[in-house]
Specification:
Layout: H1 2-34, E1 38-45, H2 46-51, E2 70-77, E3 82-88, H3 94-98, E4 102-103, E5 113-114, E6 128-129, H4 132-137, E7 141-148, E8 154-162, E9 167-174
Antiparallel strand pairs: 1-2, 2-3, 3-9, 4-7, 5-6, 7-8, 8-9
Length: 176
C-alpha cells in the first residue's frame, strides 16, 4: 500500500514538472517571436514598393535598381540595421543597373559574412561566410556600392547579379 502511495505521488509530481516545462518552453518561444524586429515584404513592381514608402524610408535604392524591377522580395531588420532584397529585371534594363555598380574581386570585410534573412528566396550561396569564387560559379557577379548611411556612418550594398536570368540580390549593412 505504501509503495502505491509513493508511486502516485511521484507520478503527480512528474506531471506537474512536465506541465511547467511545457509552459516555460511555450512562453520562451512566444517571447522570442515577439522580440523579432525583422519584417518581410513582397512587391509586384518597384512602383508598388514606392507606394508603401520603401524608397522614401531608404529600404530600396531606386537609383541603383532599374525602375522596371519586379517580383521584389524585401527583408528588413532594424537592430542592427540590415536589409536583404531580391528582384527581377528585364534584360534590356541590365545596362542601367550595371552602370551604377562597382565590380569587385574580393569582398570588403563588412560583407564577407552575411546572415541570411530566414527566407527561402535568398540564395544559399549568399549566406554565411561568402566565397566569391563559389558565388561566381553559381552564375552571380559581385558588385559593391558604398554611400553615406547617415551623417556619421557609411553603408555598403553587396549586389549579386545573374545577368543572363535578369535576377539581382542585394544585402545592405553599415560599413565597418
Amino acid at each position: 500500500m505504501r509503495q502505491t502511495g509513493v508511486f502516485l505521488r511521484d507520478m503527480i509530481l512528474w506531471k506537474a514538472f512536465l506541465r511547467r516545462a511545457a509552459l516555460c518552453i511555450s512562453m520562451t518561444s512566444v517571447l522570442a517571436s515577439c522580440g523579432s524586429d525583422r519584417k518581410e515584404y513582397f512587391y509586384q513592381t518597384l512602383a508598388d514598393a514606392e507606394k508603401t514608402g520603401e524608397i522614401t524610408r531608404g529600404w530600396i535604392p531606386d537609383d541603383l535598381i532599374p525602375s522596371s524591377s519586379r517580383a521584389i522580395h524585401l527583408a528588413e531588420e532594424l537592430s542592427p540595421s540590415r536589409e536583404w532584397c531580391a528582384f527581377e529585371f528585364p534584360a534590356t534594363d541590365g545596362e542601367l543597373l550595371r552602370k551604377n555598380l562597382k565590380s569587385v574581386d574580393s569582398l570588403p570585410p563588412s560583407v564577407r559574412q552575411v546572415r541570411g534573412p530566414g527566407a527561402s528566396w535568398w540564395p544559399e550561396v549568399l549566406r554565411g561566410n561568402l566565397e566569391a569564387e563559389k558565388i561566381n560559379k553559381a552564375g552571380l557577379q559581385l558588385y559593391v556600392v558604398e554611400r553615406p548611411a547617415n551623417s556619421v556612418n557609411m553603408g555598403i550594398y553587396l549586389f549579386a547579379v545573374d545577368w543572363s536570368k535578369g535576377r539581382g540580390f542585394f544585402y545592405w549593412t553599415y560599413k565597418f
